[in-house]
Amino acid sequence: MRKVLVTGSLGQIGSELVPALRKRYGDANVVASDVRMMPAGSIGAEGPFEYIDCTDMRQIQEAIRKHRIDTIYHLAAILSAVAEEKPHIAWSVNMGGLYRILEVARQNGCAVFMPSSIGAFGPTTPRDRTPQDTIQRPTTMYGVTKVAGELLCDYYHLRFGLDTRGVRFPGLISNVALPGGGTTDYAVEIFYEAIRHRHYTCFLKPETEQDMLYMPDAIQAILNLMEADPARLKHRNSFNVTNMTLTPAILAEEIRRHIPGFTIDYEIDPVRQAIADSWPNSLDDSAARQEWDWSPEFDFETMTRDMIEKLSRKIKRAEE
Ligand code: NAD
Ligand code: AKB
Predict the structure, then answer these.
(1) Average pLDDT taken over every residue of the chain
(2) Known catalytic residues?
(3) CA-nearest residue, atom 9 of ligand 1
(4) Cβ-count burial of 213 within 10 angstroms (0-12 exposed, 13-18 middle, 19+ buried)?
(5) pLDDT at residue 44 greater than cutoff 80
(6) Which residue has its alpha carbon closest to ligand 1 atom 4?
């Protein structure tokens, strides 16, 4: 049975990954951690939780030894929009944190999962169906840390034999935790606002194309990649994974089919628009399909229906 540590576990991905890992490996075998304290009744409650700042080697080392951890899911990071506001902090957390996680993993023989992003590509990358192996010259601090992180994980695998694996996620759409300050956040916010107010003001232009993935498929991708036969993996860090190419206008139209009268207008945020314009429109995920049988379940229609059903119930419960 694996003994798992999840860093940054109170964020958008961790809030759904921790319960999925606990279902698979048992509550006691999955240690959640974050630099924020766990709010009462949240995901850490049914299993162990540790306060860990991923830039603090001692805190990571102590938790790994105390819980005899063999696998680390390293989610702690600063996302793209916040990283442009605070590039020095983004460098320190995204690079400094990853380096320390890899070092402690090397000393203790742990496997490491690190999610990269479409943000690891830049304006000179082919924009449509971006290949697995292609030009990576990002122009954002987030992208710089993501491409360097992919290379660092590859280095630890090649040089020290560490079992490092990762995916490049597009924007993730989810209904458990809100996103943490990225460029694709509109695709989550729009659902909350549509249900609450039947109106959303979007910070990206209506025609901005970006790939998206629904969180249940993202969680399945993480679980499947980490359990994949290593002999089949030619690319380790990181596999393109994706599901649907959306624009704010297309997503708004689909939501309107479920919530008649929903309206959208646009107040463009130049910083986030520039980040989005520097990223690919869509990804080619055939390497993930070939090497570990990646195959998402949801499509645009089923994702939208599921989001609206789940969020409507959640918002109604919160208002009661
Ligand atoms: P998030 O912002 O929702 O959560 C990140 C968590 O990290 C937060 O709970 C935060 O408190 C914690 N954190 C910040 N600094 C820390 C530190 N110094 N030490 C420990 N914890 C710290 O992010 P997320 O969406 O869950 O993303 C997790 C990972 O997945 C990140 O590497 C992100 O780049 C990547 N990713 C996310 C998406 C997405 O759409 N959500 C897409 C591509 C890649
Ligand atoms: C962000 O917008 O920063 C993230 C990502 C795609 O990496 N959602």
Answers:
(1) 96
(2) 142
(3) 11
(4) buried
(5) no
(6) 11
